[in-house]
Design a protein that fits this description.
The complex is a heterodimer of chains A (491) and B (139). Chain A has 491 residues and is mostly helical. Chain A is built from 21 helices and 2 strands. Chain A has a domain at 298-491. Chain A has helices at 5-22, 28-54, 76-103, 109-128, 132-151, 157-187, 192-202, 206-223, 231-238, 241-266, 271-274, 277-297, 302-323, 326-357, 368-371, 373-387, 393-407, 411-437, 442-445, 452-470, 473-486; strands at 57-60, 71-74. In chain A, strands 1-2 form a two-stranded antiparallel ribbon. Chain A starts with a helix and ends in a 5-residue tail after the last helix. Chain B is an all-alpha fold and 139 residues long. Chain B has one domain (5-134). Chain B is built from 5 helices and no strands. The chains are: A mainly alpha (491), B mainly alpha (139). Chain A binds chain B through residues 4, 7, 11, 14-15, 17-19, 21-22, 59-63, and chain B through 69-70, 72-74, 76-77, 80-81, 83-84, 87, 91-97.
Chain lengths: 491, 139
């Protein structure tokens, strides 16, 4: 069992997906999905424990030795990302029961959970595999199922936004595949560790540079890196609430992991600094933080506001990558974890409002904070974490990012990080003002607090935001280990 | 289409051949070109030809869409289930060597089972897609 951990994480949800589709309507598909996500979360926890204590796990699929066969290779980086994906899924599922019953037509519920499990399989698969073509396969599994999931949203715009994501996502996947093909043509291998050994010899070739550029653009599209983020606000706004929570907290994180893996493990040392890649990341990060935060301020729809804020947060992570230093990458990995916590909590709390009143526009939610005190509390605390107030998880990652920027003497970057936080104060302030300080409309006075099943997962994520803000040993420790595993040198 | 005698006779004589060829591609895939993916498409082509000539309702009588949905899942389960059986027989995931007696027999059985799973899923998904598009606008 112990030695099969890495494959079980992918196989269990894969087997459960067709079973969920075949089950009768009712709560059975949800039960199966719930069990699977819990088992996976436990397995992912065990996997991280094993990696931290016993070192890298290597698993040969079908007994074929790498580099010929597919290898699953787990070090601190992917073990951590897998735990984020599985943990968020396990927290989303208790929340999903009521929310899905309200938002998805009854006859589609088994298929909904089936698609959810496939998306979960794909995301976990990307984190587990050590084969770059296998990454593409899992990327497509997760993307195709998430297009379907987004299109299930209640409004008609869900269809167009799913279509928009489909086009952009397919472009991204195709670019990724073209890049992988070009690099394969020069090295003759697809195994990541093998690529890392062979690429230094050919790293001067134009083909390799072109392949690198294709892969970067492809992953950046999936990651919604500014200015390739155009699909994200619509997709997050119109998707069913549960899917918004799950995708916002996991999908972009997994794409970011792929980016880190390619930049630092596969491509030879110094490739990032020898090409303008690092500067491009910093530039796009800075532009993303400023423009997306300003866009967020002008949104009337709360989900869209948070979606733009996600684009801005991806900007912070891109900046950390751009510094290409141990400190910067550590900051990126910490923020990757913390952002999953805060966006998960925020979207869950907003989902609770949607559960009660059906919409989430700023002019519909006036005064709801007093009617739904727990939900409001969750929004305030995770909002503070998003801004980066000391004592919350958000502060830790921003602190490390500022340190990384100071280390490089990148004063503009420092200024932009701080301005970004101030802009976050403005847009979160707008949300809190509408919820608490505006007088409640008559219809809103009758609204009751959300059911416990929605509040408990939200509360768990909010507590995690505070816990990881106070006890930084776990996150920073694992992130530093992950940075070492990626092989990023200190500057 | 009901009066097109030639089409009806020709397709009726072609469909059994298509099905036999699909089964050949399926179960000879380990020695010759072919395998589950191609076989599934060929087999679904037989049903699609039947639907084109005799109408959608007649085709749906042969294979109701409820059964197709179960078949689509069943194929994936056969594939993934084979992998799980290999785990219990002591190997890694999808390492067929330990499935039965000798290593060669194990590899042979394993690939046949996996391809059967692929074939069933491809066949049923092709038909689900065809019925979904062809049935648009019907009550």
């Amino acid at each position: 069992m112990q030695e099969h951990l890495s494959i079980l994480l992918v196989v269990i949800p894969l087997v459960a997906a067709p079973i969920a589709a075949m089950l009768p309507r009712g709560r059975m598909p949800w039960m199966v999905t719930l069990m699977v996500t819990f088992i996976c979360a436990i397995l992912a926890g065990m996997q991280l424990w094993t990696v931290v204590h016993d070192g890298t796990i290597s698993y040969e699929l079908g007994g074929w030795a790498p580099p010929w066969g597919i290898e699953y290779r787990i070090d601190a980086v992917n073990a951590m990302v897998a735990l984020i994906v599985a943990g968020i899924a396990a927290l989303t599922l208790p929340y999903a029961l009521l929310s899905v019953e309200k938002e998805i037509p009854e006859r589609q519920i088994p298929l909904f959970y089936s698609a959810f499990l496939l998306c979960f399989t794909g995301l976990l698969g990307i984190t587990q595999t050590g084969d770059i073509f296998n990454v593409f396969v899992f990327l497509e599994i997760s993307s195709l199922s998430s297009y379907a999931l987004i299109s299930l949203g209640r409004k008609r715009q869900a269809l167009t936004s799913a279509y928009q994501y489909l086009i952009m996502g397919t472009l991204g996947a195709t670019f990724f595949l073209i890049g992988v093909g070009l690099i394969y043509s020069q090295t003759g291998t697809l195994n990541m560790m093998d690529l890392a050994e062979r690429l230094p010899e050919v790293s001067g070739l134009k083909t390799v540079h072109t392949g690198f550029a294709f892969i970067m653009i492809g992953v950046a599209l999936k990651l919604a890196l500014f200015p390739l983020h155009l699909w994200l606000p619509n997709a997050y706004t119109y998707a069913p609430t549960v899917i918004t929570i799950f995708l916002a907290a996991t999908a972009t994180k997994v794409a970011l992991y792929v980016m880190l893996r390619i930049l630092f493990t596969i491509f030879p040392d110094g490739f990032v600094s020898a090409t303008p890649t690092g500067d491009l990341f910093i530039l796009s990060g800075m532009a993303g933080i400023l423009s997306a935060s300003i866009y967020a301020i002008y949104q009337m729809d709360i989900k869209r506001l948070l979606a733009y804020s996600s684009v801005a947060q991806i900007g912070y992570m891109a900046m950390g990558i751009g510094f290409a230093s141990a400190m910067g990458v550590t900051a990126t990995i910490i923020h990757l974890f913390n952002h999953a916590l805060m966006k998960g909590a925020l979207f869950m709390a907003v989902g609770a409002i949607i559960y009660r009143i059906g919409v989430c526009r700023l002019d519909n939610i006036q005064g709801l904070g007093r009617q739904m005190p727990w939900t409001f509390g969750a929004i305030v605390i995770s909002g503070l974490s998003l801004i980066g107030v000391p004592g919350t998880a958000g502060f830790v990652s921003k602190w490390y990012l500022v340190l990384a920027a100071l280390e490089q003497e990148a004063w503009i970057a420092v200024a932009i990080i701080l301005i970004g936080s101030l802009l976050a104060v403005v847009y979160m302030g707008k949300l809190i003002e509408a919820l608490y300080f505006k007088p409640a409309t008559e219809t809103n006075l009758a609204v009751k607090e959300a059911p416990m099943l929605l509040l408990i997962p939200t509360g768990a994520l909010v507590l995690a935001n505070i816990y990881f803000g106070l006890d930084t040993e776990l996150t920073v420790g694992v992130a530093e280990r992950a940075t070492q595993a990626l092989g990023v040198a200190a500057k | 289409m009901t009066h097109n005698l030639i089409l009806r006779v020709v397709s009726k004589s072609l469909i059994p051949l298509i099905i036999v060829f699909a089964l050949y591609v399926q179960f000879h895939g380990d020695f010759g070109p072919g395998g589950g993916f191609q076989a599934g498409v060929i087999l679904s082509a037989a049903i699609i030809l039947y639907a084109l000539v005799f109408g959608l309702d007649a085709a749906e009588q042969i294979i109701p869409s409820g059964i197709l949905r179960i078949l689509a899942g069943l194929g994936v389960l056969i594939y993934a289930g084979t992998g799980i059986v290999t785990l219990f027989s002591g190997g890694n995931y999808l390492d067929y060597s330990g499935l039965v007696g000798s290593q060669i027999a194990g590899q042979h059985l394993g690939i046949l089972l996996v391809e059967l799973g692929v074939g069933i899923t491809v066949f049923s998904v092709m038909l689900i897609i065809f019925f979904a598009f062809a049935g648009r606008g019907r009550p």
